[in-house]
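Supplementary Note 3. Input sequence used for the single-chain structure prediction.
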Amino acid sequence: AKRNRRLRQVSAASTESPNDARRWTQVLARYRQPSYRRGLFEIAVTVVPLVGLWLLAWVTLDVGYWLALPLALASGVFVVRLFMIQHDCSHGSFVRHRVANDWIGRVASVVTMTPYGFWQRTHSVHHASSGNLDRRGMGDIDTLTVAEYRARSVWGRLRYRLYRHPLVMFGIGPAYLFLLQHRLPVGLMRGNGWWPWVSTMATNAAIATVAGGLIWLIGYKAFLLVHLPVAIVAASIGVWLFYVQHQFEETTWAKEGNWNALDAALHGSSHYDLPAFLRWITANIGMHHLHHLSSRIPYYRLPRILRDHPELRAVGRLTLLDS
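The predicted structure, written as discrete structure tokens, is reproduced below.
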């Protein structure tokens, strides 16, 4: 009976246009089913390899950095996956209860170095304004129209081009963002009271405690040799993913009067169609058009949507080679 009901739902949805964002939100609502069992499994298959690779990197320092560094970088990739768990927690979609989501997210934020409360608020602004030319500036990557770029001075154009240079966007910028900028809730205090400050300082204190304990156990040199590459590669991959999710050739931007949240969600977010392992390690975040249409769907249920509704695969599709 369940199978027949599901087939009827799939059949009904298949008659809808893949570009009809409003109808798709109704279809996707059926997939909002977070599970504690699946959530615990996702935490285990993320945290165990992360910790194991980190410890192996430390143990192999005496063998040679040529072996320790790749292990540290691999550990950093699992930090990206942990960040996706934190991301779902911020939407209240990873497990069923809000308090559990929040505490899982807060614990994860110590490893990802991204204050949970601070990031949750900026990310909610991103979801509420993505693709809106009149509401840029928080939780997104700075983007100018051609007219805005041409109106800038020579120095202003140069600064924008430097900001967008790959070495800055995916190298220096992510390191600065996660290691330094996330330590202070600059620009978020107005209208939000002291909560962003409290959240950020609590995360900083937890990071300092964990880092201090590890330095006491293994020494500051070993800690930096292992964990600095972990943090940098995780930050760079995270920014890269965020970039290609919204900065692609056919993405949608509009002024406030012409902007529609659902259309912007479906057509302003890419389907980053990655190979299977990369899709798993990034926790399906590449299915970003689905996530923006219904952010309460757990990331571990997104692949089922594309299996049930293959017409959504082509919407905003971006391959690894394209990116």
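The first helix runs from residue 2 to 14. Confidence is low (pLDDT under 50) at residues 2-15.
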